Amino acid sequence: MRNEISKKSLSDYKEYEWFGEIITLFCDTTRKELGKMDDALKKDDFNLITNIAHKIKPNYYAVGLYELYRRADWIEENINKDLNKFQNVEKFISISLDAIDELNYNRLILT
Q1: pLDDT over 70 at 21, yes or no
Q2: Residue 31's closest CA among 11, 60, 8?
Q3: Residue ranges covered by each domain of the chain
Q4: Minimum mean pLDDT among 16-25, 38-47, 61-70: which range?
Protein backbone atom coordinates (compact mmCIF):
# COMPACT_ATOMS: atom_id res chain seq x y z
CA MET A 1 0.00 0.00 0.00
CA ARG A 2 1.50 3.32 -1.05
CA ASN A 3 0.84 6.29 1.17
CA GLU A 4 -0.53 9.25 -0.73
CA ILE A 5 0.46 12.72 0.32
CA SER A 6 -2.43 15.11 0.63
CA LYS A 7 -2.00 17.56 -2.25
CA LYS A 8 -4.29 19.98 -0.43
CA SER A 9 -1.95 20.01 2.57
CA LEU A 10 1.04 20.56 0.32
CA SER A 11 -0.63 23.43 -1.50
CA ASP A 12 -1.70 24.96 1.82
CA TYR A 13 1.92 25.03 2.96
CA LYS A 14 3.25 26.26 -0.38
CA GLU A 15 1.92 29.75 0.21
CA TYR A 16 4.38 30.18 3.07
CA GLU A 17 8.05 30.88 2.54
CA TRP A 18 8.99 28.36 5.19
CA PHE A 19 7.35 25.43 3.38
CA GLY A 20 10.67 23.87 2.42
CA GLU A 21 12.02 24.29 5.94
CA ILE A 22 9.01 22.51 7.46
CA ILE A 23 9.29 19.60 5.06
CA THR A 24 13.05 19.35 5.54
CA LEU A 25 12.65 19.40 9.32
CA PHE A 26 9.89 16.77 9.14
CA CYS A 27 11.93 14.50 6.88
CA ASP A 28 15.14 14.80 8.90
CA THR A 29 13.60 14.34 12.34
CA THR A 30 11.19 11.60 11.31
CA ARG A 31 13.89 9.65 9.46
CA LYS A 32 16.06 9.85 12.60
CA GLU A 33 13.22 8.62 14.82
CA LEU A 34 12.45 5.79 12.40
CA GLY A 35 16.10 4.73 12.70
CA LYS A 36 15.66 4.62 16.47
CA MET A 37 12.46 2.63 16.00
CA ASP A 38 14.30 0.13 13.79
CA ASP A 39 17.04 -0.22 16.43
CA ALA A 40 14.38 -0.73 19.11
CA LEU A 41 12.73 -3.40 16.96
CA LYS A 42 16.03 -5.27 16.73
CA LYS A 43 16.21 -5.21 20.53
CA ASP A 44 12.54 -6.20 21.00
CA ASP A 45 12.00 -2.92 22.88
CA PHE A 46 8.33 -2.37 22.17
CA ASN A 47 7.97 0.19 24.94
CA LEU A 48 10.46 2.42 23.12
CA ILE A 49 8.65 1.75 19.83
CA THR A 50 5.42 2.89 21.47
CA ASN A 51 7.11 6.07 22.73
CA ILE A 52 8.60 6.85 19.31
CA ALA A 53 5.24 6.28 17.61
CA HIS A 54 3.67 8.72 20.07
CA LYS A 55 6.43 11.26 19.43
CA ILE A 56 6.26 11.22 15.61
CA LYS A 57 2.51 10.78 15.22
CA PRO A 58 1.65 14.51 15.13
CA ASN A 59 4.40 15.15 12.58
CA TYR A 60 2.61 12.97 10.05
CA TYR A 61 -0.64 14.81 10.60
CA ALA A 62 1.03 18.21 10.21
CA VAL A 63 2.28 17.40 6.71
CA GLY A 64 -0.85 15.62 5.52
CA LEU A 65 0.28 12.02 5.89
CA TYR A 66 -2.96 10.98 7.56
CA GLU A 67 -2.68 7.25 6.90
CA LEU A 68 0.74 7.17 8.56
CA TYR A 69 -0.67 9.21 11.43
CA ARG A 70 -3.33 6.50 11.91
CA ARG A 71 -0.72 3.74 11.67
CA ALA A 72 1.50 5.46 14.27
CA ASP A 73 -1.54 5.83 16.52
CA TRP A 74 -2.35 2.14 16.08
CA ILE A 75 1.22 1.16 16.95
CA GLU A 76 1.13 3.36 20.03
CA GLU A 77 -2.13 1.83 21.24
CA ASN A 78 -1.89 -1.80 20.13
CA ILE A 79 1.63 -2.98 19.43
CA ASN A 80 2.02 -4.91 22.68
CA LYS A 81 -1.12 -6.93 21.84
CA ASP A 82 -0.19 -7.57 18.19
CA LEU A 83 0.85 -11.09 17.24
CA ASN A 84 2.48 -9.74 14.05
CA LYS A 85 4.20 -6.82 15.73
CA PHE A 86 7.57 -7.30 14.05
CA GLN A 87 6.08 -7.34 10.56
CA ASN A 88 3.75 -4.44 11.29
CA VAL A 89 6.51 -2.21 12.66
CA GLU A 90 8.82 -3.12 9.77
CA LYS A 91 6.05 -2.29 7.31
CA PHE A 92 5.34 1.02 9.08
CA ILE A 93 9.02 1.97 8.90
CA SER A 94 9.26 1.02 5.23
CA ILE A 95 6.11 2.90 4.21
CA SER A 96 7.21 5.90 6.25
CA LEU A 97 10.60 6.03 4.58
CA ASP A 98 8.95 5.79 1.15
CA ALA A 99 6.63 8.65 2.10
CA ILE A 100 9.58 10.75 3.29
CA ASP A 101 11.32 10.19 -0.04
CA GLU A 102 8.16 11.15 -1.92
CA LEU A 103 7.66 14.22 0.25
CA ASN A 104 11.26 15.29 -0.32
CA TYR A 105 10.75 14.90 -4.05
CA ASN A 106 7.57 16.99 -3.93
CA ARG A 107 9.34 19.60 -1.84
CA LEU A 108 11.98 19.98 -4.54
CA ILE A 109 9.30 20.41 -7.19
CA LEU A 110 7.11 22.83 -5.23
CA THR A 111 9.73 25.08 -3.66
Answers
A1: yes
A2: 60
A3: 7-110
A4: 16-25
Question: Could you read off the pLDDT of 52-94 as tens digits, one per residue?
Answer: 999 999 999 988 899 999 999 999 999 888 878 999 999 999 9
80 within 8 A of 46, measured Cβ to Cβ: yes
Crossing angle of helices 46-62 and 66-78, in 10° steps, is: 160
CATH topology for 7-110? Answer: Four Helix Bundle (Hemerythrin (Met), subunit A) (1.20.120)
For helices 85-110 and 66-78, what crossing angle results, to 10°?
150
User: What's the whole-model pTM score?
Assistant: 0.80
Alpha helices, DSSP H, located in 2-84: 7-14, 19-42, 46-62, 66-78
